[in-house]
Amino acid sequence: MYGRLLNLAYAALAEKEFKQEKSNFWEEPHQKASLWKPCADKKDSERLGKPDKSNGYLMVSANGGLNQQRVAICNAVALASLLNATLVLPRFLYSNVWKDPSQFGDIYQEEYFMKIMKDDVNIIKELPSHMKSLDIESIGSLITDADIVKEAKPSDYLEKVLPLLLRNGVVHFLGFGNRLGFDPVPSQLQRLRCKCNFHALKFVPKIQQVGSLLIRRIRKYDASQSMLDKQLLGEFMPSSASKMNDPTRGPSRYLALHLRFEVDMIAYSLCEFGGGEDEKRELKAYRESHFPLLIERLKKSKPISPSELRKLGRCPLTPEEAALVLAGLGFKRGTYIYLAGSHMYGGESRMYPLTSLYPNLVTKETLLTDSELAPFRNFSSQMAALDFIACATSDVFAMTDSGSQLSSLVSGFRTYYGGRRAPNLRPNKKRLAAILSENSTIGWNSFEDRVRKMIEEGQRVRARSFGRSIYRQPRCPECMCKS
């Protein structure tokens, strides 16, 4: 789609190799970033604490993949506190999309989770035996997403759910995606969500161990011991005493890229990606097969053209667009790039503009052997956990869709634990679309300048604003302390 710009990028990167120029995006540009410190787990005299008497049991069956489930767990902890309920360890619903039977204990350390949250919320592994025979649906205690609006307020739960809990002694949330808003929520409940997300949810040792192996193979050295390593890898954190190669050299830096260019993402977007009539037919057939509700909605609404969607910044970035952004930011051709995600739409041919510009591109599938990956292959959430680790502990994290759960959670984790040493690169897709619309005339220097300003704008150190996710933007008094 952008042949001329890609040719300019090749020439610019070749020139940078000779000039030994360095990108200045390996570190956060603002000193203020280091003023915010993690403190969601601090002891607080105003802490809500556990009630003397529980109002009943709160069960949650979380839907979605790894990252949606993680948000559901944290929201469940906050709700258990709000309702004075005992939380039954959340379960994960099986999805025909994700095809993963993993449960909480297959991904997270159960005992550790319960230990960290024990002073705030009563948590048990199973519903007591005398409650198991209850038909929860027939007594009216089954609550689905249809019963609770998205981004619901605490008052919604106190008015609709608490009476059921008091009457029946148990409520069961079946599906629990995005059902608790971020404001207005009492500060102590916000703190519990942060404590759960950033402190209580630790991956099980088998995920930590292979995640550590993955990172060592990307870096080629065992020299990094950051706070992010410690939090995500536990006892499997790389040791600075061991070097895999030349001990006189420092560790290999790497950039992690979350490229949302899977077929479901681009089909749902309704955008076009330069593939002509074949692409249109293929994506139309995929929508009809996988997104019947989208098809019904489209029949009742006025269509927006693919070109207008692109102008509005609603289209997923293509591999060549991602390559152009990285080149515009000055990342050298030899930069090691870890690519997160599953199979890219269009395969190797579609990825060629990115892999030819940045040949040192690796994935978990290329870094780990078949036998090392075998225990995870049929478990998409556990595979996603490996991507989470590799992205969160990278030297730079670049996302192409800031609205995705993985990008939001990873960037928030890096903000919480990274200080100034874990920059996130977040493009403004609407501004980028305007820049790329001039692809036949714009000069490379002008392209670089505008792309850099766009990314720098996204790196400003801001406190969380009203309504924004505390998982993505934890710089707020409930999650972090400002020195």
UniProtKB/TrEMBL annotation:
The identity of this protein, by name, is Uncharacterized protein
- In its UniProt entry, the species of origin is given as Manihot esculenta (Cassava)
